[in-house]
Every structure is written in C-alpha cells, then in structure tokens.
Design brief:
mainly alpha, 4 helices
Length: about 170
C-alpha cells in the first residue's frame, strides 16, 4: 500500500490550466440541412419489386391451396352423404328380397297358383363342377337324331307342374 503522504500530495496538486489558444468555439444552434432523396440504382428497385411480388404470390398460392382443400372437403362430405343414403337403400332392398324369397311365402304363392306339396321329396346328389360329366349311354344313337337342347328354366317348370298335377290325381 502506498504511504498516505503521496496520495495527499496528488490530491493537493493544482488542476491543469487550459491554454488560451485551445478554447472551444461558442455554441450555436445547428440547423439540419435539407435531406436529399436517396437515389436508388435500378437493380436495387428490381430486387424490391421482385421480393414484394414473391411475398404477394406466395400468399395467393396459400389462399388458392386452402380453397382447393375446402372444395375437396365439401365434395367428400356430399359423396359421404350420398353413400350413406345408397347403403340404407340397399339394406332396405336386401330386406325386401329376403322377405320375398322366404320359403313360407313361396309355398303360399304356389298354393295360390294351384300347386300342391309333393308326397315324397327326392334329393339329387351333388355333382362336382370342376370335372366334366361322362356321356350317358342311350340305346341306338345312330338311328335316332339327337334331341335339341332345351332351355334350363323351361323343363324345371313343366316337370314341377306335371309332378304337382300327377301327385294331385
């Protein structure tokens, strides 16, 4: 630590005198010069215009995209409503078909048309559909011409009707 006498001597030293030639000039009011408009180069303007155009374009792009998404959602909602209505219609039609195909109704309809229930029911054996059937052997095939194939629905009705009439007699 420094002795106390040196710090006291420093404090007692007189302040330096200002020289008469280094005096400050008197204060005065500063009047600002009129501003000059800054001239920008054409390339600077070009960058400003391009940046503004990009911002506006990107905002328009976002708005158009949101509009397209909203339209898609509206179409999806409309299609979902149509699908629900058509599914309800299909279920109602399936119920109607099931009611029309009920065995009790079919029997009642046959009775109304004059058919009677058979006395005996014969079940036909199952035939595999993936293997061809063997050709049946019928008597003399050279003398008699082959009969023309009949439609599948016609023999079923006639045989059922003839069986029903034969059973009634």
């Amino acid at each position: 630590m420094a002795p106390a006498a040196t710090t006291a001597a420093r404090r007692a030293a007189p302040a330096p005198q200002t020289r008469p030639g280094s005096r400050r000039p008197p204060l005065r009011i500063h009047q600002a010069e009129p501003r000059r408009t800054a001239r920008r180069s054409p390339s600077h303007r070009f960058y400003i215009i391009v940046s503004v155009a990009m911002v506006v374009g990107s905002l328009l792009f976002v708005v158009v995209g949101d509009t397209l998404v909203a339209q898609g959602q509206v179409r999806m909602t409309a299609l979902g409503t149509k699908i629900s209505a058509e599914e309800a219609k299909q279920k109602a039609m399936q119920t109607e078909v099931a009611q029309l195909a009920a065995p009790n109704r079919i029997v009642a309809q046959g009775m109304a048309l004059g058919l009677t229930a058979p006395a005996q029911v014969v079940y036909l054996p199952q035939v595999p559909l993936d293997k061809p059937l063997a050709t049946p052997q019928t008597g003399n095939t050279a003398a008699a011409p082959a009969p023309a194939p009949a439609p599948a629905a016609a023999p079923a009705k006639s045989s059922t009707a003839s069986n029903a009439k034969g059973a009634a007699q």
